[in-house]
Amino acid sequence: MSNLTQAIRQLQEEFSADTPQLHSIAADFRRDMINGLAGRPSSLAMLPSFLTRPSGQEQGIFLALDFGGTNIRALAVELLGNGSFQIRDRQALPLVDPAGGYNLIADSATAEELFGFLASQLAKLIPSSDIHLLGHTFSFPCRQTSANDAILLYWTKEIKTSGVEGRDIVQLLNTALSQQGLSHIRPVVILNDTVSALIAAAYSDIRTDIGSICGTGHNTCYLEPTPPQGTQPMYINLESGNFDKIPGNIYDIRLDRHSERPGTGRLEKMCSGRYIGELVRLVILGLMERDLIWGGRVPAFFAAANILSGEDLALFLSDATPRLERIAAWLNSRDPAAGHTLADRSLFKTVASLVVTRSARLAAVTYTAALRHMDPDMSQPHTIAIDGSLYEKMPGYAQTIHTTLGDLLGEKSGLVRCRLAKDGSGVGAAVAAAICGSFQSADPAFSG
Q1: Fewer beta carbons under 10 A from the terminal one: N or C of the chain?
Q2: For residue range 213-240, what is the model confidence (pLDDT) as tens digits?
Q3: Top-tier CATH class for 1-48+205-422
Q4: Other CB atoms closer than 10 Å to residue 178's CB: what's the count?
Q5: How does 248-276 read in b/e, with b if 16+ C-beta sit within 10 Å?
Q6: Residue 192 DSSP class
């Protein structure tokens, strides 16, 4: 057996996630769910959304603001009832002007500048001064005590705008709207993108009780039957990327050591699109340094961190040409003097497959744990709404999730349906606004 063959077999073991191991991880995940709900130490935040499921009959025109990264979207959504909707208008703009005119995510930018920009985009959606309720998808770590307050704990995703951390996002937006004469736009709910995707899907399919993001980031939420914050079922944001009771290999440890927040987000770093490219690079770099690939030479472009994206991995996995010509073209575009062999190119595809397959199987573990928590006997049908580029575009990803659910749930997996919830974060915010605008309940946990 050659040294390279031995190395590949070792990698297969290091990135394996066999069914018995996944059952154990799912049990630990469910235990952390229970502990988090009870206020005991847990790696899962179990954040309440203070939102319950829609009826599917909500109607009217509602505004949605989707702020989840360096681009924002503002939408006018007409809910038609019977789970149907129509996008009446939309605005989409970057928070950093490509021409250099503005940069609203730098630490030199202020809260007033950022939220003034958001308000100005909403103003373009409605020419009249009629009252419009607004739902705001805000995908950053927050502390909430009701559906319509959210204190930003800290920025992520390279955003550094000053004067926002530690402040109420809803109040900042209300102030900006008032200053621009837009008091008829009334924010009534703020929620994160995972909950928003779930609500959007539940509007058209009442059986949808798990939502997930499998893209640049990873997170899962679900409908908790008996939340500690109220008497009605409530969507709970797991912040599942922080789950830490999962064994990592040497590449996971190396990636974590050089990450922005070492020691945190273990599942996120093993699962999300932001990190799996770097995991592939670290594995291949190790093989290069051991003189097992590329003649022992490390190309200059490959020595830099984070040069592999999820899109690159998708290209590797989709290359079905006899000599992997698409991978060859990708390599040649970055190092024309590479001199790579078919065996080298094949290894890129093999390593990408190992890392991506593990990512999908770990995502399925979080769904299994949530399903068993909500429905221990698995006696009811369930729909899982999944948004994100990995689920939508990564070759084999969706099928691996489906197969893994079959491995973990057996014949009961027939009761589980996974569906793509594309762009759910905008529509979900509008549905949430409808829920909060019309919800009349004596339960104070659900008041805005």
Answers
A1: N
A2: 999 889 999 999 999 987 799 999 999 9
A3: alpha beta
A4: 12
A5: bbebbebbbeebeeeeebbbbbbbbbbbb
A6: -
